[in-house]
């Protein structure tokens, strides 16, 4: 067993690596070489990455890809995507191409309200707490003016603070449920600073409130933190076309295609096992854009899945209908994204990604990201109800198999050609590569 190390974060990068290799890799030099292969020769760039997080010993690459041909509200976009799953970018591009000839995507941001809460315990008369809150609410808000001043200049700020009585769910539990506008920032630091300030003010004002007994004055702040559940920070995206413009094949007429598509979405609405995979496919597109643009994909994931459960059971984030022979497909998703602050001005590839999108504001980025999710879902359902998912997936996965088998460039070229007309399976790739090598 490895002995406990203290003061690890203060060691130099080399010493951290030496420690790890000594304790976990039998001092294997090859391990050090692997880590160093990923170091950037540009020292300043490497230092920038080292300083993003603690105990950084190397860089972890993900493919940075682009999906062209997205027509969104009449404007053309090439969407940056950071993702390792081989078929995702191809699927997005295919969906973009399909819909660009059918009017493209229409998007809208419904609202951009962010939420944070001060959770506290109050053992006393609820009516007195309500009166106290009425008396001090404006004081609490105005006392944070020094924190909200800059955000207000940018069009954001503190929107409201509500006292919420949660004692029916947990003894003595109350909240300050606070709403914020954070303009083009994701706003986590702004919100958390405001909340911690509100909590302090709440304690001070309660202590000095003459209407409270000694016990009531002693309300206990449990924690102050933003919520990643943002059901009022919503982007929508949709596509529509006459049913007759949908794929029409020997196996499925356009009408049959539309009806099958709708059934597939309906299943994801009512069946959580399917809904999770359906939404996972949506998040393939969403996360890839969120990562490429330097946003927090864990926050987006958590918020999206909570939203998908808002009606009491986990359900689809997309919807499909046929009305008057017009097929429509749409997504509604919470996306608390930022285009300023965080990594957006630090990470060179994030800057480039935002530039590629025309340096959008947060609202526009929410719209573009929602489109990426809808496109991904369209591509997945399209495959699922026609050829099945494996045909495309295995084609895209072929390169991974070839790399596992250490195929040379010439072997790759020949086998990619061969598998254009033959089904890809791992064993068949092995057979074919062995044939070439004989
Ligand atoms: C794979 O990453 C995503 C899919 O499974 C999504 C879906 O089933 O809708 C293809």
From TrEMBL:
Q: Keyword Metal-binding on this protein? A: no
Keyword Cell wall biogenesis/degradation assigned to the entry: answer is: no
Its UniProt pathway annotation is:
Metabolic intermediate metabolism; (R)-mevalonate degradation; (S)-3-hydroxy-3-methylglutaryl-CoA from (R)-mevalonate: step 1/1
Q: Keyword set for this entry? A: NAD, Oxidoreductase
UniProt cross-references to NCBIfam families, sorted A to Z: HMG_CoA_R_NAD (TIGR00532)
User: What EC number(s) does the entry state?
Assistant: 1.1.1.88
Catalytic reactions of this protein: (R)-mevalonate + 2 NAD(+) + CoA = (3S)-3-hydroxy-3-methylglutaryl-CoA + 2 NADH + 2 H(+)
> So what family is this one in?
Belongs to the HMG-CoA reductase family.
Class of enzymatic activity (EC top level): oxidoreductase
Q: What is this protein called?
A: 3-hydroxy-3-methylglutaryl coenzyme A reductase
A Pfam family assignment: HMG-CoA_red
Species of origin? Aquimarina addita
Tell me the InterPro entries matching this sequence.
HMG_CoA_Rdtase, HMG_CoA_Rdtase_bac-typ, HMG_CoA_Rdtase_cat_sf, HMG_CoA_Rdtase_NAD(P)-bd_sf, HMG_CoA_Rdtase_sub-bd_dom_sf
């Amino acid at each position: 067993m490895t002995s406990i190390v203290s003061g690890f974060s203060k060691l130099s990068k080399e010493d951290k690596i030496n420690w790890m290799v000594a304790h976990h890799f039998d001092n294997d030099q090859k391990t050090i070489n692997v880590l160093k292969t990923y170091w950037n020769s540009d020292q300043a760039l490497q230092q920038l990455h080292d300083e993003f997080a603690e105990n950084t010993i190397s860089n972890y690459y993900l493919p940075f890809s682009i999906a062209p041909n997205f027509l969104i509200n009449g404007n053309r976009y090439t969407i940056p995507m950071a993702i390792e799953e081989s078929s995702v970018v191809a699927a997005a591009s295919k969906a973009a191409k399909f819909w660009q000839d059918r009017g493209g995507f229409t998007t809208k941001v419904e609202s951009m309200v962010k939420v944070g809460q001060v959770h506290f315990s109050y053992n006393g008369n609820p009516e007195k707490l309500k009166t106290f809150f009425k008396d001090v609410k404006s004081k609490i808000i105005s006392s944070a003016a020094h924190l909200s001043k800059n955000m207000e200049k940018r069009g954001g700020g503190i929107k409201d603070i509500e006292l919420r009585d949660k004692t029916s769910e947990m003894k003595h539990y109350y909240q300050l449920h606070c709403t914020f506008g954070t303009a083009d920032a994701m706003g986590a630091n702004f919100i958390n600073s405001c909340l911690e300030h509100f909590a302090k003010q709440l304690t001070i004002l309660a202590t000095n409130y003459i209407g409270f007994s000694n016990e009531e004055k002693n309300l206990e702040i449990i924690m102050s933190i933003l919520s990643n559940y943002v059901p009022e920070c919503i982007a929508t995206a949709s596509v529509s076309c006459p049913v007759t413009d949908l794929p029409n094949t020997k196996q499925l007429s356009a009408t049959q295609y539309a009806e099958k598509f709708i059934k597939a979405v309906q299943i994801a609405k009512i069946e959580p096992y399917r809904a999770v995979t359906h939404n996972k496919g949506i998040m393939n597109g969403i996360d890839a854009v969120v990562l490429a643009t330097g946003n927090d994909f864990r926050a987006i994931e958590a918020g999206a899945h909570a939203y998908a459960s808002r009606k009491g059971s986990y359900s689809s984030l997309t919807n499909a209908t046929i009305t008057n022979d017009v097929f429509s497909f749409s997504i509604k998703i919470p996306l608390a994204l930022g285009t300023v602050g965080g990594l957006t001005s630090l990470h060179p590839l994030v800057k480039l990604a935002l530039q590629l999108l025309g340096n959008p504001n947060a609202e526009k980025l929410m719209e573009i990201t929602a489109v990426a999710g809808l496109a991904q879902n369209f591509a997945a359902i399209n495959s699922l109800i026609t050829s099945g998912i494996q045909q495309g997936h295995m084609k895209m996965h072929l390169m991974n198999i070839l790399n596992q088998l250490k195929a040379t460039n010439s072997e790759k070229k020949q086998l990619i050609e061969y598998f254009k007309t033959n089904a890809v399976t791992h064993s068949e790739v092995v057979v074919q590569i062995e044939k070439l090598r004989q």
